[in-house]
Amino acid sequence: MKIMIVEDDLTLAREICGLCERWGFEAEYLTEFVAVDQEWERRRPEMILMDVNLPLYDGFFWCARIRKVSRVPILFLSSRDQNADKIMAMVSGGDDYVEKPFDHELLLVKIRSLLRRTYEYAQAEREIVGEGLIYDRNQGKLIFEEDSEIELTKSENKIFALLLDHRGEVVERETLMRQLWNTDEYVTDASLTVLVSRLRAKLHEGTGGSVDCIHTRKGRGYYLDGLRQ
């Protein structure tokens, strides 16, 4: 597990980094704070330790920016001890809050607990579709060969989840349309065809054409076999 430390006191950042590494984590800290969200995107850590008082924009701002695109666990570290700050940390999307100066053992417990809650749950939400292809229900995406992600829209996610729930069985077109109507999206017979075609195209592009698992039963609906070509 990689931890990214966002702390402008570089002496403290190095200390925390050393602690994390002694505890068996991979850790790195930022030295620039102009684009923390872009640094997260580039480094892709499994967890962020975020200070509140940062140059330019505070930790609440960066947490909210990251939350727009990711559920990566964020643990705030701050010398602020007011309830308003703790509430703001949660409102901005933070998962937990530790006051400075912090006890090392408490920090370790918080890190392990947050990682366990986040990734054990996420793992339970992942299902193997076929060789090299995994469906992440929690994130609403497909993962191919562990490093290629295929993002699905809300409608595509609903369609794929229903097909996977009935793997090997034909799911009637009417059943798929009703499932989409339950999300307040009105789908016609023609638009369902377009949605499935787009989903197939994403699969084809995202897997380099090696996966073709959604099939048509003419006049009835679609089924998923989960097998590679």
Give structural attributes.
Rossmann fold; four-stranded antiparallel sheet; Arc Repressor Mutant, subunit A; five-stranded parallel sheet
Brief description of this entry?
The chain has helices at 10-22, 36-43, 59-67, 83-91, 104-124, 154-165, 173-181, 189-206, and strands spanning 2-6, 26-29, 47-51, 74-78, 96-99, 126-130, 133-136, 141-144, 148-151, 171-172, 214-217, 221-224. It has 229 residues and is α/β, with parallel strands linked by helices. The strands form three sheets. It has a five-stranded parallel beta sheet, with helices on both faces. A four-stranded antiparallel beta sheet has the order 6-7-8-9.
Structural summary, described in words:
- The protein has 229 residues and is α/β, with parallel strands linked by helices.
- The chain has two domains: 2-124, 3-Layer(aba) Sandwich (Rossmann fold); 126-224, Winged helix-like DNA-binding domain superfamily/Winged helix DNA-binding domain (Arc Repressor Mutant, subunit A, Orthogonal Bundle).
- Helix content is 43%, strand content 22%.
- The protein has eight helices and twelve strands.
- Helix 6 (154-165) packs across helix 8.
- The longest helix has 21 residues, at 104-124.
- It starts with a strand and ends in a 5-residue tail after the last strand.
- The model has no long low-confidence stretch (mean pLDDT 88).
